[in-house]
Amino acid sequence: MEVMEIKDLHVSIDGKKILNGVNLSVKKGEVTALMGPNGSGKSTLAYTIMGHPKYTVDSGVVIWKGKNILELSPDERAKLGVFLSFQYPQEIPGVSVSNFLRTAYNAVKGTSIPVPEFVRLLREKMGMLKIDPAFSRRYLNEGFSGGEKKRTEILQMAMLSPEMAVLDETDSGLDISSLKVVGEGVNAIKTNNMGILIITHYQRILDYIKPDTVHIMVKGKIVKSGGSELVTQLEKEGYDWIKED
User: What DSSP element (H or E) covers 215?
Assistant: First the structure.
């Protein structure tokens, strides 16, 4: 079983330390949940894994497929099967969802998929996720609701079939109905060939996407790890008991 290993990761931004020695592993075929209060460094970890330029890696490694991916460019990481679903997806006026997805597919897969084959694949994935085909003709995220933006991210994930998916607060800004749709979409995509790191500070998304392992981050470090019982305890007691502990 392939594993992404994050070892003693220290990260800063503009000279301010954010991650203080993170150790974490994410296995293919499993869902790993990373929880923690706002400002604990969860999103910093997500962006560091994917290679956002504003984050400085002071020390540590992220090992995936025998390579320290911190030494690779973001596109090289994507080609190794790493995917990031953004908390706040950007609007790209003038670029349709369909054209964006085909460009992303060709770039990540290193191929040029014929248009008819791409259309069949896109329709298949949209059907699986219960997305109206007309959705693909809209400009990417322009005028989209929060739920529609997140469904587009999940559709992209379905099209690219990553082996390691990082979902950064996918539940942010979603109402209950949209949350259920997104949760069901992730479950429809999930396979034994895909590891998922889901980052959240709420329990509600984990009602739909059941984690195998739960880690809690406070002040840039993993302070507690366990199973789904940690989610239940956080729901009852909040994060104060962790800070006191």
Answer: strand 213-218
- SS3 (DSSP) at 153: helix
User: Phi and psi of 29, rounded to 5°?
Assistant: 85, 0
Domain total in the chain: 1
| Residue 78 counted as domain residue | yes
Per-residue pLDDT band at 149 (split at 50, 70, 90) = confident
Instruction: Give the list of residues 6+ apart from residue 23 with CB closer than 8 angstroms, or none.
Output: 6, 7, 8, 9, 222
DSSP state of 36: -
Instruction: Please give the Cα distance from 134 to 218 (Å, whole number).
Output: 43
Residue 224 domain flag: yes
What CATH number has the domain bearing residue 180?
3.40.50.300
- Would 47 be classed as within a structural domain? yes
d(CA 103, CA 16): 36
Domain ranges, residue 61: 3-90+163-244
84-94: burial string, b at 16+ Cβ within 10 Å, e else: bbbbebeeeee
pLDDT digits (tens, 9 = 90+) for 93-143: 899 999 999 999 999 999 899 999 999 999 999 988 888 888 899 988 888
Name the token pair of 107.
């770039």
Tell how many helices (H) and how many strands (E) occur in the chain.
8, 12
- The enclosing H or E element of 243 equals helix 240-244
